[in-house]
Amino acid sequence: MIGQTLITFRETLEAALIIGIILAYLIRTGRAQYARYVWYGVFLSIAASIVLGATIWFAYGAISDSAKVLFESAAAFTAVVVLTSMLFLMAKKSRTIKKEIEKRVKTIVTGGAIISLILFSFIIVFREGLETVLFLTPTLVTDATGTIAGVIVGSLAALALGYAIFIVGKNISIRKFFYFTSVLLILLAAGLVGYGVHEAIEYNQKTGGSNLGWFDDSAYDLGINENNIFHHKGAIGSVFAVMFGYSAKPEWGRVLFHLTYLIVALPLLIRVYSPEKFSGFVNRVLWFRNQKKKKSKTKLR
After folding, report:
1. What pLDDT is recorded for position 171?
2. Residue 282: per-residue pLDDT
3. Distance, CA of 297 to CA of 301 (rounded, Å)
4. Which pLDDT score is estimated for 13?
5. What is d(CA 60, CA 71) in angstroms, rounded to the nearest whole number?
6. In a 3-state reduction of DSSP, which class is residue 251?
7. Which of 109, 154, 110 has its CA nearest to residue 131?
């Protein structure tokens, strides 16, 4: 539930902040009468997101067991691709997003394009809804109760924080908030990459596919029984499974893809948000490497 809550919280808050920027601009510029059209778009997008989630759920229930495994793998990889691209896009635009949105809204309301305003708010919220549905699909089909609970808790928490920011005037660094939540989501995405590989391997085994050799061999076995709370299907282990891709007995392929994604994506995200810190980190790594080379040369002499 924790992972699902975090995902929903981040995506809902992002939508709430953008809608808040639009509403604040309309009120500040004396165009409050257009606010209701923004809400029309919001409500339509929420309804569309619920319909999309329900459609995926019913479609999953109608397919065969082996197809379900393939579906979960495809859903995991699709979610990772969409989420990763949106995380980096948001990271690049986080400094200028307010100005860009206000400029777009000004153009729309100046021309009196009511339908365009509805569509604009619809697209903004539905984009976040689509990301949430895609990212939660793998957990929805395996833990529907926990996923639904996480969606409710995450949504309420995000709306409460959004209210605090725009109505109460709470001073919060939006860029820092997105930075830290993005790091957590990268960890979640890395686990999802591993889960996608695991399901693909399982599908290959169920359908009598080709021999994958060491790729589908166990990398390690913690020897934890499925009934144990620390197993990745247990009460505590499942939290770490969703948050960090933890598994009591993962395949080499799962571990390899999980770590590869993490090693590539996490430094790149840090580089986008904090180029100075990233440069400092790289310089320290290079310095340590040069020191090791100097020590090696000294020993050879």
Report:
1. 58
2. 56
3. 6
4. 83
5. 8
6. strand
7. 154
**Rg, C-alpha atoms of the chain:** 23
Q: Tokens 């957990």 belong to which residue?
A: 139
pLDDT at 146: 79
pLDDT of residue 8: 84
C-alpha 264/C-alpha 282 separation (Å) is 14
How far apart CA 225 and CA 146 sit, in angstroms, is: 22
DSSP 129-157: HHHHHHHHHHHHTT-HHHHHHHHHHHHHH
Give the span between the Cα atoms of 175 and 221, in whole angstroms.
40
The pLDDT assigned to 299 comes to 57
Task: List the end-to-end C-alpha distance of the chain, in Å, as a whole number.
Answer: 59
Inside any domain, residue 116:
yes
Cα angle vertex 77, ends 64, 190, to 5°? Answer: 125
- The count of domains in the chain is 1
pLDDT at 165: 73
| Sign, CA torsion 90/95/98/101 | negative
Cβ-Cβ contacts under 8 Å for 166 (sequence gap 6 or more): 20, 23, 24
Q: What is the pLDDT, as a whole number, of residue 286?
A: 62
pLDDT in tens, 36-84: 999 999 999 999 988 988 888 788 778 888 888 888 888 888 888 888 8
Tokens of 232: 């990745």
Residue 188, domain extent: 2-280
Global pTM value: 0.73
The stretches in the chain having pLDDT less than 50 are none
Domain membership flag for residue 288: no
Alpha carbons 259 and 156: distance in angstroms, whole number: 33
The SS3 of residue 189 is helix
Does residue 140 fall inside a structural domain? Answer: yes
Residue 160 counted as domain residue: yes
